[in-house]
Amino acid sequence: MMLRTVSLRVMIGAMAALLAVVAGTASAAIEPAQFSHCREIASDSEQEEIAAVTLDEASWDLLAVGAPNLCVVDAVNAPAPVLMRRATARRVRRVRATCRSKVAALRELPENRIEVDIDLLSQAPVADTIVFVTPLRDFERSISVDGIGADGTATRLVSDALIYDYTRFMDVRHVTVALPRNEYRKLKISIDAVTDTTQSPRTEITRSLRESEELQRTETTVETTRPFRIGAVQLSTHRDEAHNREPVTAGYKLKGWSVSEDAKKGTTTVEVETFHTPLTSFTIETGVRNFSRRVSVLVPYRRDGREQWRQVGAATLSRISFRSFKKDALKVTFPEQQQRRFRLVFQDGDAVPLKVDNVIGHGPAWQVLFLAAPSDTYRLLLGGSIASKQRFDTSHIERLLAREIAPREFEVGPVIDNPDYDAKASRSLTQWLGSRTFFAVGIVLVVAVLGVGLVRAGKAALAESEGESDS
């Protein structure tokens, strides 16, 4: 019983010793000398504000992943509780709504034309778009639209708009006509060349034979007349709607990029170097038209002491520019990455390598939020080999944000060297707390205390047993 009591006291003593070291380490204050660089924060507010400092490339280039080496201090170098978050803003989206309508009349006109009268039903909004629903492929038609007033007068809204389908060349289809702003509830739609002549994919072959010998062969291509079949004419309108707050995306500059080609593998590789900014996409700029390429986004990692690359995103980039139809898909997205290097690998196959003119990085805009007192001055401290993140209670800032109190953007000055920087200070006990060395020392301390305690407990138990034997 005595041995158990002594062992319990030893365990409690060891844990108390370790906690004392932790508490003593955690109590070390954040010092400006721990940060290698600083930026002045311009503050001219006459009242308390939720100050917002947006991190740019110059700031991100000095920050470690998770930004532990960042701090805001006031005029007397007292650290201010800061909250890092993605910047948000209320977005206005264009929403499409159907305008209920009916076909009032259809007329066949000379010169291979038809006219369709469309009336909006009661309570339906005014239309700004017409969509033609048709099963037809490989066509091209010219559309004109008139607005019909209450007195029957016609006003031309659209002249010779083109709808088309070029499936025989590539997957390009456009069956929408945009209308200018108007108040008309009756529309007259004119369609030119409602029938066309196409060649049949089949060929008629006539052969003349004499005793199984072919004397003459005639091949005739069959042409068919095809009407422009319209399944429906749909009217719609667009309106702006305010939605919830969404993350703000920023365009980030790159330190540089280079291109290399591998003819054997049929690939083009773009090596990208960043300012350590958080990125979620790359946009490729190129003057090449009518192409499609599969691209993969790779980031480096260490395995068995060697650099390896893993894929974090992929997409098919393309650009279609055919007659009046133009469509670009030149962006590849991926989960947020904070890396200094990326690789974009294009699969060219047997095609000519894609000529890349520029690469643009995009990612979320991050803000540093803190409460700024009126007429006070602040500095943003950056850099330094600081391992553990500062632990401040920022619930008061979060509660203010929840009440829709908008932060105010504060400008920052250029990055300069911190005149108070001390490289040794950045490895103080505060940063040592999160290191492996700290835990190793803690374990050694606990084992040592337990060993001494157990030895004493063993001696006490031995003395107790000898005393019982003498009695």
The helix count comes to: 5
Radius of gyration: 37 Å
Q: How many structural domains? A: 3
Mean pLDDT: 84
Strand arrangement in the largest pleated sheet:
6-7-13-9-10-11
Helix content: 10-25%
Give the strand content.
Answer: over 45%
> How many strands in all?
30
Based on secondary structure, the structural category is alpha+beta
Features of the shown structure:
alpha+beta, 471 residues, Jelly Rolls, 5 helices, six-stranded antiparallel sheet
Word description of this protein:
The chain has helices at residues 2-26, 57-60, 395-402, 429-432, 436-470; strands spanning 37-41, 49-54, 70-73, 83-86, 88-99, 101-109, 113-120, 129-133, 139-148, 154-165, 173-174, 176-178, 186-192, 195-210, 213-227, 232-247, 249-252, 254-262, 267-274, 278-285, 291-303, 306-322, 325-329, 331-338, 341-347, 358-364, 366-372, 378-382, 408-409, 416-417. A hairpin with a 2-residue loop joins β22 (306-322) and β23 (325-329). 16% of the residues lie in helices and 50% in strands. It has a six-stranded antiparallel β-sheet, with no helix packed on it. A six-stranded antiparallel β-sheet has the order 18-19-25-21-22-23, with no helix packed on it. It has five helices and 30 strands. The chain has three domains: 29-87 and 370-427; 95-193 and 228-240, Jelly Rolls (Sandwich), CATH 2.60.120; 249-364, Jelly Rolls. By secondary structure, the protein is an alpha+beta fold.
